[in-house]
Every structure is written in structure tokens, then in C-alpha cells.
Design a protein that fits this description.
Peroxisomal Thiolase, Chain A, domain 1, 388 residues, alpha/beta, 37% helix, binds coenzyme A, two-stranded antiparallel ribbon, 2 domains
Length: 388
């Protein structure tokens, strides 16, 4: 296996982008990544595009050739593949592209992710997202994602004494971080009181405990490490890429206080990178709901199981904490265009490792981790990146 580096990143604004089409978003993110890398389009060998449900959100399937076309690479007939893994589509696209470059099959690969979710009304978006749960045994009975994560939250609160305030503190921290991210959907700071007073979505999760419905796209360019030097002097190496799966349904799991696929992917990634959780300088984790971040920091070994709420309250995961989590604002504040999220997480880690995260920059960041989850944990993918 060859070593693989990220030589370019690009991302659109995240938010409710009615003036931009899906095609515009894909083109903008891809062009930004290609120009950031300073690579000519003709050098691109392949594309991997994460998209969860473009068919139902905008009526457009077969988005891989669409990406080739908007990049103007149709005459080169390069291979392009769409990857679907619910909210982990971006992260899994990254994993597939990593394998392709590491194996020696391709040299320069564009990995993108895009979703345009706000063209449908709210209830329909919830229904489309619920297709990433078990339709027959969960969604059909009304157990949509806010409901499934609410069950996990209730269990965590019951078992470990995690409080509603501690859940809210995840949202407060991520909105604070997002206030410094020009690309974030919500740049307003909020308080614990704001979260607790916001409408109840699925008890105990309030509106401000939830990630929003978002439009956006993101892209990165991968290259073999030995060729990366020709394009950039700020080389970020992929130290690990690990993917794990579990039951599709939440009720099929052996435990509800953890996402076992995420634990497994995390362990595999630490082994591959030959590091321990304490070596990580910052992490972007999949905070689709506030409880998801608390479970994630436990599953990834940053804190002991059951201590995620307390650790958040004590500031361990804040910008100046021991392990800053979701410096971008996370899914909560930056937004969650499902297919794009995994790649947007990688964008943030690369910005941080290159020292380009401006006001939210973590000092001397060398190693960053991205944790991307599909559904209620049926898929989990963990990447560990290091600045060379
Ligand atoms: N965080 C912060 N503010 C939010 C928000 C969120 N998650 N969702 C909506 N808002 C704001 C809107 O901007 C709007 O503000 P305004 O009145 O100032 O314009 C207001 O709240 C109402 O927005 P609306 O779109 O009517 O909310 P909604 O009730 O239709 O949807 C949720 C809110 C939480 C139900 C929806 O965002 C949701 O379903 N989120 C979860 C998405 C999900 O499941 N993703 C997959 C995870 S696995």
C-alpha cells in the first residue's frame, strides 16, 4: 500500500441555498479543491462522490457523470462513482478513494460529497432521512432519526446521569465554534437556556439539540504522498482510514449507550495510525444530535464511557480544551448536508493542520480525527490525518 496525502480542499457555503442548484454546488466545491491543489484537470484519474438521496431530494440520480461533466472532464472519460452510505456517504467515499490511491490503481482522485436538502418541505426531508433507518421496523412506526437518537439520549441519561443541560452544552459549544466559521449555516451564539426553551422535537431533544436541514458540497483531492510534494508544501497525510458496519436497526444492537461500529472503526484507525486517543489534537465528530457527540467522544476513547456529558460541561472538548471537538461548528451549527458532511469534516481537519483555521485555529495541531456516522450507527468511518 502507498501512503496517501490530501493536496487540495474546497467547500461551498452551507445553509439554505435556494439560489444555487445541486450542479452549481458540485461545481463550486470541486473547482475550489482543484485550484487549491493547483492541479490541472487533465491529471485527475478518478472521482468518488458521496450522496445520500439525491433522487428523492432533487429528483436526480446518476450524479457521478454529472460531476464529471461539471468538471469539464467528459472527454477524458475518467471513471466516477457515486457512494451511498446515508449520512456517512462522504466519509465512505473518502475511504474508497483512499483505497484506490493507496493500492496504486489511481494517482490523483477527487473525492466529493453533496446534498441539496431544502428543496423539499420539512416533513418530507424527515421522511427521506428516515430511509436510512430500518424502514420496515423503525421508520414505518414513526421512529425517525430525532426519535431514535432521543431513545439513545434517554438511555444515556438513565444509565449515567447525563443531564439535559449537558446535552445543551454540546450545542452551545458548537454554535460558538460555528460563529467563527464563515461557511457555517448558523453563526449565532446560543445559551443553554436557548436550547432548553427551543421547541421539543423528540423528548429529550429540543430543536437546538438537532443538526439542521442543509444544502452544501465539499471536495478534497487525494494523491500518492511521494507525488504530493510537487503540488503543495503543506502536505496532510492520511494516517488511517477505517470503515465498520453494524445492524441497520437500532433495536438490533447489543447496546444503546454506544455505536459499536464507531468503536470498531476508531480502534482500527488507531491501530493503523499507530497512535492512541490521547495523541489526537482535535476531532470532528458526527454530532447529528447533541447526544451523538457525547456518545462519540466516549466511543473514540477521548473519555470513559458515561463521562461524555461531564467532560463537555468541564470544557474538555471546547476550543481551548484538552481535545477540541467540532471546531468547525460541527453538524449542529455548520450544517449537515448529509452526503457532503464526511468530506466537510476532512476539510476542517486539513484547515486546522495547515494552520489556516483563522479565529478557531488550534495551536500546534498535528493530528486530527474525523468520525462520520451513517443512520443510527449502521455505518461508521474514521479517518486520522497528520500534517507532514
Ligand atoms: N438548529 C438551529 N436552528 C434551527 C434548526 C437547527 N437544527 N432547525 C431549524 N432552525 C431554525 C430555522 O432557521 C428557523 O429559524 P427562523 O424562524 O429564525 O427562520 C426556525 O428554526 C424554524 O425552522 P424550521 O425549518 O421551520 O424547523 P423545523 O421544525 O421544520 O425543523 C428540525 C427543525 C430540528 C426538526 C429539523 O432541522 C430536523 O429534522 N433536523 C434533524 C435532521 C436529521 O435528522 N438529520 C439526519 C441525522 S441522522
Amino acid at each position: 500500500m502507498r501512503e496517501v496525502a490530501i493536496i487540495g480542499i474546497g467547500m461551498t457555503q452551507f445553509g439554505e441555498l435556494w439560489e444555487k442548484s445541486f450542479r452549481d454546488l458540485v461545481a463550486e466545491a470541486g473547482i475550489k479543491a482543484i485550484s487549491d491543489a493547483g492541479i490541472e484537470g487533465e491529471k485527475i484519474d478518478a472521482m468518488y462522490i458521496g450522496g445520500m438521496s439525491t433522487g428523492r431530494f432533487i429528483g436526480q440520480e446518476h450524479v457521478a457523470p454529472l460531476a464529471v461533466e461539471v468538471a469539464g472532464l467528459q472527454d477524458l472519460h475518467i471513471p466516477a462513482v457515486r457512494v451511498e452510505a446515508a449520512c456517512a456517504s462522504g466519509g465512505v467515499a473518502m475511504h474508497q478513494a483512499y483505497i484506490a490511491v493507496a493500492s496504486g490503481m489511481y494517482d490523483f482522485v477527487v473525492v466529493g460529497g453533496a446534498e441539496k436538502m431544502t428543496d423539499v418541505v420539512g416533513g418530507e426531508a424527515t421522511n427521506i432521512l428516515a430511509s436510512a433507518a430500518d424502514r420496515e421496523w423503525e421508520a414505518f412506526f414513526g421512529a425517525t432519526f430525532p426519535g431514535l437518537y432521543a431513545l439513545m439520549a434517554k438511555y444515556h441519561m438513565h444509565k449515567y446521569g447525563t443531564t439535559q443541560e449537558q446535552l445543551a452544552m454540546v450545542a452551545v459549544k458548537n454554535h460558538y465554534n460555528g460563529s467563527m466559521n464563515p461557511k457555517a449555516q448558523f453563526k449565532r451564539k446560543i445559551t443553554v437556556e436557548d436550547v432548553l426553551k427551543s421547541p421539543m422535537v423528540a423528548e429529550p431533544l429540543h430543536l437546538l439539540d438537532c443538526s439542521p436541514i442543509t444544502d452544501g458540497a465539499s471536495a478534497v483531492i487525494l494523491a500518492p504522498l511521494d507525488k504530493a510534494k510537487e503540488y503543495t508544501d503543506k502536505i496532510v497525510k492520511i494516517k488511517a482510514s477505517a470503515l465498520a458496519c453494524d445492524t441497520l436497526s437500532l433495536h438490533g444492537r447489543k447496546r444503546f449507550d454506544s455505536l459499536p461500529a464507531a468503536v470498531h472503526a476508531g480502534k482500527k484507525a488507531y491501530e493503523m495510525a499507530e497512535i492512541k486517543p490521547e495523541d489526537v489534537d482535535l476531532a470532528e465528530v458526527h454530532d447529528c444530535f447533541t447526544i451523538a457527540e457525547i456518545i462519540a467522544i466516549e466511543d473514540l476513547g477521548f473519555v470513559e464511557k458515561g463521562k461524555g456529558g461531564k467532560a463537555t460541561e468541564e470544557g474538555l472538548t471546547s476550543l481551548n480544551g484538552e481535545i477540541p471537538v467540532n471546531t468547525s461548528g460541527g453538524l449542529k451549527s455548520k450544517g449537515h448536508p448529509v452526503g457532503a458532511t464526511g468530506i466537510a469534516q476532512i476539510n476542517e481537519i486539513v484547515l486546522q493542520l495547515r494552520g489556516e483555521a483563522e479565529q478557531r485555529q488550534i495551536k500546534d495541531a498535528k493530528i486530527g480525527l474525523a468520525h462520520n456516522v451513517g443512520g443510527s450507527g449502521g455505518t461508521a468511518v474514521v479517518h486520522i490525518l497528520e500534517v507532514v
